[in-house]
Amino acid sequence: MLTRNPDTCPTHPGAILREDVLPALGITKTDAARALGISRQTLYDILAEKQPVTPAMAVRIGKFCGNGADIWLNMQAAHDLWHAKRDVDVSEIPTLEAVA
């Protein structure tokens, strides 16, 4: 089983769309945006990793790609969590233990 290096940020789903999906489909960004029912700017922002893939967008992309929403939402969650673990200071938050 492969394990991911915890020091490497998980790939943003927009990068997968930009680098793998759209070229493999041979479709332009404009045509992809039209097929997804979103503006070109919204798609461009996702592809540029400036916007996250929301649950609603994951449903659209999952249908478009034929692989379901879960994979796209899970990629975004992994990406976001990796950043949150590095950005959020939890040093002052106590870890509580249940009383037996």
What does this structure look like?
The chain has helices spanning 13-25, 29-36, 40-47, 55-65, 69-87. It has 5 helices and no strands. It has a domain at 13-80: Orthogonal Bundle (434 Repressor (Amino-terminal Domain)). It is 59% helix and 0% strand. With 100 residues, the protein is mostly helical. The mean pLDDT is 96.
Keywords:
59% helix; 5 helices; 434 Repressor (Amino-terminal Domain); 100 residues; mainly alpha
Number of helices: 5
Sheet-strand content, in percent, reads under 5%
Order of helices and strands: HHHHH
The unreliable regions are none
Q: Would you tell me the overall average pLDDT? A: 96
Please provide a brief summary of the model:
With 100 residues, this protein is mostly helical. It is built from 5 helices and no strands.
Strand and helix map with partners:
Layout: H1 13-25, H2 29-36, H3 40-47, H4 55-65, H5 69-87
